[in-house]
Amino acid sequence: MSPSNRIAVTEPAAEDFEQLPFWYGLAGVDQKDYSAEIHGFTSALQDGYLGVAVGKPGRGNVETLLDLDQSRWYYARTSARVLRLNGEPIGMLIMGAHWRLWEMMKKRGAHLTGATIDGFPLGEVDFMIAAMAMAKLHVLAVHPDQHGRGHGRRLIREALKIGKADRLSMLYGQFRSDRPHLRKFYTAAGFTVLDPGEPMPLYMATGTEGDLLVVESTETIFWTTVP
Ligand SMILES: CC(C)(COP(=O)(O)OP(=O)(O)OC[C@H]1O[C@@H](n2cnc3c(N)ncnc32)[C@H](O)[C@@H]1OP(=O)(O)O)[C@@H](O)C(=O)NCCC(=O)NCCS
């Protein structure tokens, strides 16, 4: 590749989050108002807590979270990367905590044993560690002008690299079932792609039989273990 065609996976800048509606739109997600999310990412980046509890295996991620206000945990467990061609953004990757699991995490802790670690209920800490063993791919998108050139695969490699450094056991996501090319894309990338509407067992993460990530038949879940 010539020096004038330089590809790089970079950390995001605040203005990259202004483009979130575009990237979500490519993935077929059409939310009306993105302002809260853009504000959430921008604040997390500017205040220095975006992704700070990622990639510090052992007790590191948990200890980092416990030092932060709980309202910051979600973004502290979220990673964002921008794929740039000669400095221009051509792709976006966002992965990490999933609201539904994190809401479960909060509820679980409340009625378990009275024991605590650093003031947090023991059950909550257990479930936190479990929820941290898996990450959701929220955004993985490449600019339409750049499709079919291996950039999507490059972003998957980056996601797995982040997951490995974080010692995740599982990386998963979901796409609209009416987008069959994504089944090919994720299968080619080594993911297991479930049937439309098939729920994903969460036992691996939560340790509780019967815990399921349930989706409508209009949605399809894909997942892989992280090598
Ligand atoms: C999915 C997406 C990221 C793929 O990016 P890309 O850069 O075009 O993909 P790559 O060039 O890396 O393709 C890797 C492999 O995926 C498969 N693949 C990718 N696009 C495909 C398509 N449209 N149809 C069939 N297979 C496809 C092929 O097997 C390809 O390997 P090959 O080129 O050796 O045949 C891109 O299409 C995109 O941004 N789509 C819109 C956003 C989106 O839907 N994201 C996923 C939401 S969960």
TrEMBL record:
<dbReference type="InterPro" id="IPR000182">
    <property type="entry name" value="GNAT_dom"/>
</dbReference>
<dbReference type="Pfam" id="PF00583">
    <property type="entry name" value="Acetyltransf_1"/>
</dbReference>
<protein>
    <recommendedName>
        <fullName>N-acetyltransferase domain-containing protein</fullName>
    </recommendedName>
</protein>
<dbReference type="GO" id="GO:0016747">
    <property type="term" value="F:acyltransferase activity, transferring groups other than amino-acyl groups"/>
</dbReference>
<feature type="domain" description="N-acetyltransferase">
    <location>
        <begin position="52"/>
        <end position="209"/>
    </location>
</feature>
<dbReference type="InterPro" id="IPR016181">
    <property type="entry name" value="Acyl_CoA_acyltransferase"/>
</dbReference>
